[in-house]
Amino acid sequence: MPREIITLQVGQCGNQIGGEFWKQLCLEHGIQPDGLSRLRDANDGGSSSTAAPSSTPMSPLSSTSSAEHHQAASNNPIKTSPPPPAATKFIDDRKDVFFYQSDDDHYIPRALLIDLEPRVVNKLTHQGPYRNLFNGENVFIARDGGGAGNNWASGFRQGEQHHEKVLDMIDRESDNSDSLEGFTMCHSIAGGTGSGMGSYLLEALNDHFPKKLVQTYSVFPNWSQNESDVVVQPYNSVLTLKRLTLNADAVVVLDNTALNRIAVDRLKIENPTVDQLNSLVATIMAASTTTLRYPGYMHNDLIGLLASLIPTPRCHFLMTGYTPLTIADYYQNPVPATDGSSPETPIAARGGHSASVRKTTVLDVMRRLCQPDNIMVSANTRKPSSCYISMLNIIQGNDVEPTQIHKALQRMRERRTVRFIPWGPASIQVALARKSPFLESTNKVSGFMLANHTSMAELFDRLLSQYDRIRRRNAFLDNYRREPMFKDNLDEFDSARETVQCLVDEYRACERKDYVDYDYDTARNDGGDGGGMEQVLEE
């Protein structure tokens, strides 16, 4: 039975990356922009199937033979018309994790589109080829449509005002699930709606669904002062990070600084657009859920995916890596379809920008995943004191054998490519996943890394230094004082900073052998190694 996951897209950024994510999932599962399946499955009239995978425990590869995969690729419905039912092969996927099927056999995303201003949500639901994909009842836009004005406190307040309607939508969607596993939230931590209303929803989900997992894809802002869009982003980010630390079970960090660097340096795009960066983010999000949608023996549900990556409750901020890196141009340059469907049907693997990887092997992919150039966080993972707490590599390829994995792991162990924590097991977990039969790929093997690394402290420390710079002068606080939370005092700022400082201290403590004796409560009472806001204000 599939374990369903409900996706919450909050704010402008959350809805933009969420929209690209659903486009990618539709492509990978052969779902047309209107929600109909491109293939008429031979079983259950198109419903998802959960056949048993390979008998080899190490390899969650499908029992489908390579000849069947070749036939599925040759009948690629994106490029040609769907084959008749007799020619349709058994496709072992779980669409039901992220989609449900309506009475008229349309696949509908388990997604809620939430924003305080209408522009981005209306673009998703009223324009473009995917405008009929979403459930109109799962769209929430504030009646006044004024937004949060890049003010965390305003977003939090409006989240509280509208909580009944939003929670009713969440309850209705959860009741529509047979075995709900948890929630995924897409948002930014620097603006107003994604950070403020997103923070309120994190607290509400913890209270309303205490036994369900909450994972977030959180976009971190550009750290350069010259590229910063929001002058108060340090305030919003610190206030949001407190809720991500206390109320989320896992946070996948999507760092705008690193994404821009990858687009410029690796993909050779001089001025990457928002759509191109969102396409890169969608690839990362889809890759992180591959084992949930194309299941095997291991990592086939969210708890199994996250449990081994997060040894302690607060150190749950995960970095990602992907290779070979590609950004397709099909959203900017639609190509007419040959099957009579919408002329804006995307053609995968057609042109676009890609890093120059001529040949892919399992060893090469796993080695590249550890290189800083492919990591989506602007932190130095090669610092002598920093180390990996845990690492999961998802290798995608239809012809990958377990022996190739063992040889690659042995070679990396001999070369000491990766440095792990001194107080825990040093192991790279590997999951094998099949590639989508609906998409063509120029590379035989691709890889995705999800890792917990102590260099996350560097990212948070950079944020705290920016926060202290403007907080020391009490700059830009007038708009916050107008909100009920900050009307009487600014204690919430100090509490949030203390929480983030303790998070930094704990990540740095993970680098030491005596971390097993680390006491979070004692560190918090001491104000953390960094001193806290009191020291900053006295300087």
Task: Give your account of this protein's structure.
With 539 residues, the protein is α/β, with parallel strands linked by helices. It is 37% helix and 14% strand. The protein has helices at residues 11-29, 66-74, 119-126, 152-161, 163-175, 193-208, 233-247, 256-266, 274-288, 290-293, 302-307, 362-369, 402-415, 456-471, 478-481, 491-509, 520-525, 533-538, and strands at 4-10, 99-101, 107-109, 111-115, 139-141, 180-188, 213-220, 250-255, 317-323, 326-327, 353-354, 388-396, 429-433, 446-453. It has a ten-stranded mixed beta sheet, sandwiched between helices. The chain has a two-stranded antiparallel sheet with strand order 2-3. Helix 1 runs parallel beside helix 3 (119-126). The longest helix is centred in the first third of the chain and has 19 residues, at 11-29. It starts with a strand and ends with a helix. The model is unreliable at 41-88, 329-351 and 529-539 (pLDDT under 50).
Key words describing this protein structure:
single chain; about 550 residues; alpha/beta; 10-stranded mixed sheet; two-stranded antiparallel ribbon; 14 strands; about 35% helix; disordered C terminus
Task: Provide a compact summary of the structure.
This protein is of the alpha/beta class. The protein has helices at residues 11-29, 66-74, 119-126, 152-161, 163-175, 193-208, 233-247, 256-266, 274-288, 290-293, 302-307, 362-369, 402-415, 456-471, 478-481, 491-509, 520-525, 533-538, and strands spanning 4-10, 99-101, 107-109, 111-115, 139-141, 180-188, 213-220, 250-255, 317-323, 326-327, 353-354, 388-396, 429-433, 446-453. The chain has a ten-stranded mixed beta sheet, with helices on both faces. It has a two-stranded antiparallel sheet with strand order 2-3. A two-stranded antiparallel sheet has the order 10-11.
